[in-house]
Amino acid sequence: MKQRVSALLREKFGREVVLEKPRDRSFGHFATPIAFSMAKELRESPMKIAEELAASFDASDIFSNVASIKGYLNFHLSENFLNEYASWALENPSEFAKQDKKEKILLEFVSANPTGPLHIGHARGAVYGDTLYRLAKHLGYDITAEYYVNDAGNQIDLLGLSIQLYGRENILKESVEYPESYYRGDYLAPLARDAMKVFGNEIFHDESRQKELALWAKDGVMELIKNDLADANIFFDTFVYESTLYDDWDRVMAKMGEGIYKKDDKVFIASSQKDDDADRVVVREDGRPTYLAGDIVYHNQKFERGYDHYINIWGADHHGYIARVKAAVEFLGYDSSKLEVQLSQMVSLLKDGEPYKMSKRAGNVILMSDIVEEIGADALRFIFASKRSDTALEFDLSEFKKQDSSNPIFYIQYAHARIKTIISKSNFSEDEIMSASLKDLDEAADILMFDALLLPEIIDDAFSSRQVQKLPEYLKALAASLHKFYYDCRIIGTENEAKLLKLLMLVGLSLRTGLSLMGIKAKDYMTKEED
């Protein structure tokens, strides 16, 4: 709706027009402050300009009324337009709210080290990234979801050591002295058992083979990570392994030109020239590349693949890392404005009002798989998408296990199931319902129809602003409107039964589509503890 109105006004006025939704629906479906922006150039009052603009609209299939209210130009959409749009949406459910965006985007997210299972911090970035991905696909973007596997560096060496220590203590029953830094958790058990089958007992004692053991084990850890993601309905198009990139190191460093230099047997990137706080080491004295070195080669590879835009979702602790990566992109000869970094804050968990206790089997973190097992993937996805990713999130698991209206995901699912139940009680066939007109609705029904038809602009706004929480907020509000309408309005057995059922079908379509874009399947049947 908004796109259609915007296009018409853009053509009429020859400029972009800002559209707003009046808080008082009696003022219309949309309003624009265009008269205020024209007042200075025309040297007229906004009220006079708005009155003249309103009078310039002829009879239209889209608008039933265009009025000037306190300098704003207000538009009432026509019944014909709303009826035709609603009917089209119901007849073409797979096309509802879709667009045909042309931009080609590479979206990188999660990218957790392949040294252990995902924890809830990873889960938040995973849900945020996958929801962005789904929104973009629905809008027609050519988008690729990519996972960057950091399978080089000290963290991989530590994986080999951790498996050796676990095997010696738990399989060989030896006394082991643990260093300050090592990985722990039950996930090491199958890795150690399989390592013994593949390499023999000696693999647990030979320090020279730690790297070999780690590189073998990280594939098993990656399978664990992929399974955790799949359990939350999250999948990737491509995986890029850091270990495969260093063959291109010399070429990429040469491409950096004067962006790198050597000092004190170290190689630095001159990132301070590009708004970073200081120059950064990319190669240590002993010749080992730093974490940043891998990212430089990786981002060069990204840009050489020729996308229009690049989005990285990183943990909030990577905030200071943005400037140095953008500096590298500039030194490589690319436009760093094409690289966008979104940050994902950590999560605090409660259970019945008390801090959630970490699982002994998980080591020192709360595992994503534990939370999925406790409240389900739908609730986890909804929670992590329901607040801006760059703000702290605290929630109580017990609230999302309740089967009543206090649980927002249950509340939305129940709205969809309620619609299905009401329709099943009708004697009208689906064809009879679909052929009904949505004209001459009362005010409450008209508002509900308009709200259901707002989904396309919600999707567009949620993606373009990168604020995916706008989608669950919309779904909660639409579910609340549906439940209120159900209590206030008798449907079955009335003379308007068919058209009201069609209205409910439209609401159901918006709920179902919105949930799908959150990676959640709408439910047709549910039980409820209280109404």
UniProtKB/TrEMBL annotation:
GO terms for molecular function: arginine-tRNA ligase activity; ATP binding. It catalyses: tRNA(Arg) + L-arginine + ATP = L-arginyl-tRNA(Arg) + AMP + diphosphate. InterPro entries: aa-tRNA-synth_I_CS, Arg-tRNA-ligase, Arg-tRNA-synth_N, Arg-tRNA-synth_N_sf, ArgRS_core, DALR_anticod-bd, Rossmann-like_a/b/a_fold, tRNAsynth_Ia_anticodon-bd. It is an enzyme of class 6 (ligase). Residues 3-77 form the Arginyl tRNA synthetase N-terminal domain. Transmembrane segments: none annotated. Monomer. This is Arginine--tRNA ligase. It comes from Sulfurimonas xiamenensis.
